[in-house]
Design brief:
Elements: E1 6-10, H1 15-26, E2 30-35, H2 38-48, E3 53-57, H3 63-76, E4 83-86, H4 101-129, E5 134-138, H5 151-170, E6 177-183, H6 203-209, H7 217-229, E7 234-237, H8 239-250, H9 252-262
Parallel strand pairs: 1-2, 1-4, 2-3, 4-5, 5-6, 6-7
Helix pairs in contact: 1-2, 1-7, 3-4, 4-5, 8-9
Length: 269
């Protein structure tokens, strides 16, 4: 088994996934990318350079595709996977009454089922490199407190948080870490999207109009590195995420009143 550590990242063709890939590659890791966006992965590969990267196009909603992608990456990495980042995800905002069945099912399938399938598929690979191997799940500030205007998205990110906590206990005897990132509004292409099919207003516009901050994506990559190498179960990233975490723990009723009054927009990563 090669001594160069290996990390596989879904959603590696852009945004948070790309930032994490670059950060780990710069520190000598062999990087695997999984995405439905082949062109995006090719650009990430170009940015990494040095041949320290492997890409595999697949859909996280397809369980069998996970086994194929991880098996191929493990082979390319010399027989090891030290870290897997369940990062692929899509936004969905707007009041629940306006969300279509298709939008709800797609968000649940990618953001939640995809994470479960990924964890299940990577488990035997992480067993081989334990102790110290790690599953890192991208949750969200929306997984800290349910947000008006993003009930489906919040549900998926609460689910990712729950999966992380459950596996923290389930995999403890194997020496496998389970961690999550909880970013708030991060400067990624996702902010250019509309929150749902019923509106053409970009998430970024909604966020800026609400006076909320947008955090540089590099901060998420740095947080990912710290999460993989540290002992903290959940890592918040960005001012909004940190405020929600503080309020939900120490001032839950005040936070509840604030969220009712402000009707904040989609908390996106």
């Amino acid at each position: 088994m090669t001594q160069k550590k290996a990390i596989f990242i879904t959603g590696g063709g852009s945004g948070i996934g790309r930032a994490i890939a670059l950060y780990f590659a710069e520190r000598g890791w062999f990087v695997g990318l999984g995405d439905v966006d082949a062109a995006g992965m090719k650009e990430t590969e170009r940015l990494i350079g040095n041949g320290f990267c492997y890409s595999h196009k697949f859909d996280v909603r397809e369980r069998a595709a996970w086994d194929e992608a991880l098996g191929a990456f493990a082979t390319a990495a010399g027989g090891r996977i030290d870290v897997m980042v369940n990062n692929a995800g899509i936004p969905l905002g707007g009041v629940l009454a306006d969300n279509t069945v298709g939008e709800i099912e797609r968000c649940l399938d990618i953001n939640l089922k995809g994470v479960l399938f990924g964890a299940q598929a990577v488990y035997p690979h992480l067993q081989k490199t334990a102790p110290g191997s790690c599953l890192l799940n991208t949750s969200s500030a929306a997984g800290i407190y349910g947000t008006a205007g993003s009930s489906v998205y919040s549900a998926t990110k609460f689910g990712v948080r729950a999966i992380t906590e459950a596996l923290d206990g389930e995999w403890a005897e194997d020496g496998i870490k389970s961690r999550s990132l909880m970013p708030s509004f991060i400067d990624t292409p996702l902010l250019k999207h509309a929150p749902n099919a019923a509106t053409n207003q970009a998430i970024e516009t909604i966020v800026r109009d609400a006076g909320l901050e947008i955090t540089p994506v590099l901060e998420v990559a740095q947080a990912a590195w710290d999460a993989v190498h540290g002992e903290k179960l959940h890592t918040t990233v960005g001012k909004t995420a940190k405020q929600l975490a503080f309020g939900s723990r120490w001032m839950p009723e005040r936070l509840r009143r604030q969220m009712k009054n402000s009707r904040r927009p989609l908390v996106a990563r």
